[in-house]
Amino acid sequence: MAKALEHLKILDLSRILAGPWATQVFADMGAEVIKVERPKIGDDTRAWGPPFLKDADGNITNDSSYFLSANRSKKSVTIDIATPEGQNLVRELAKTADVLVENYKVGTLKRYGLDYASIAEVNPRIVYCSITGFGQSGPYAPQPGYDFVFQGMGGLMSITGQPDGTPGDEPMKVGIAISDLLTGMYSATAILAALEHRRESGKGQYIDMALLDCVSAISSYQAINYFLSGKTPRRMGNAHSNMVPYQVFRCKQGDIICAVGNDTQYRDLCVKVFNRPDLAEDERFIKVSGRLENRDALVPVVAEIFKTKTMHEWMALMEAANVPCGPIYTIPEMFEDPQVKHRGTQLTLKHSVGVDAPGVANPFKFSETPVVYEKSAPLLGEHTDATLQQELGLTAEQIQGLRDRGVI
């Protein structure tokens, strides 16, 4: 079956998470992704364990779960880009690549002759995407940065966590490296746009992506709330800034997410689920704006009602009334949900150590070019010899010479 991007070749000089997440998107859609890693060490995240993958004999390998999560279906080629010979190998690989993705500190690759200007000289059609913490310009551009920093600087932590004055009221980060993952997805989108422009114009281009920019961008409606009202958004726990009741409520047994998004749903909650038509007809609560203004009056009443039944009892009633609701799953519970199982979210992929490695599916569902998972993440340097032979025409003797000199 056809793959959406099988005509593309991606040269991946990135490591950690944002860049690898972007290039994995391309690998999932059939692109050839050649991942360039440091000899003997590889991508930093290979060592970010435990847990580590175990081979067929139960022995712990050198590849962590973190690395497996963002590098499936790629080819691993080890090249020391700090050496002139290594730099030349990368330039030769770049000649036939459609895309190059890198996330080195600003200026590093220019010293190696691997910056956009240098690569564009040998391949003017290339789409070159640089991913950094702060971008290529500005007072912070030279500084390194990690997800945690950008969750704080981007305003995300200021609106995540329990409200001031309540137990545990410190700013809270998201439970995954959301800055990296968002930047990876934004980068993949930007690259696809640049490729479409190239299709029409014949010209490649440079893309400057920054984690801080991406986290700032997803402030979305919270930022517009501030611009329109002049009020600084605050942490609200599990409540919503623009909808009520839209939060977690404690039940007689368990907790439930109640997500009322419009006036019709609110009325159905009151009449069909709670059997409280008085709440539906209360002038303070009929409209969204009224429920927001009178949040402190409505929420305690709703909270007391939810305490009268179990989470499962309320779920049945709310689903029957078509009122949005849901449980709060652990990760294992999420994968056991029948809907999640039906959508094929959990994967097992063949790995070169002789086992099936776990994975989480790409959410894209294409009718004509479905995602195809070729293999789990590669072993370090697994494809070095084959790639240098096939892509650059090097002989076995030439490759061995490079290995003897520590270039690969």
TrEMBL record:
Gene Ontology molecular function, alphabetical: CoA-transferase activity
Statement: the UniProt record of this protein carries the keyword Endoplasmic reticulum: no
Keywords from the named record: Transferase
SUPFAM superfamilies per record: CoA-transferase family III (CaiB/BaiF)
UniProt-listed Pfam families: CoA_transf_3 (PF02515)
Protein origin, superkingdom: Bacteria
PANTHER family assigned: SUCCINATE--HYDROXYMETHYLGLUTARATE COA-TRANSFERASE
Name of the molecule in the record: CoA transferase
Phylogenetic classification of the source organism: Bacteria, Pseudomonadati, Pseudomonadota, Betaproteobacteria, Burkholderiales
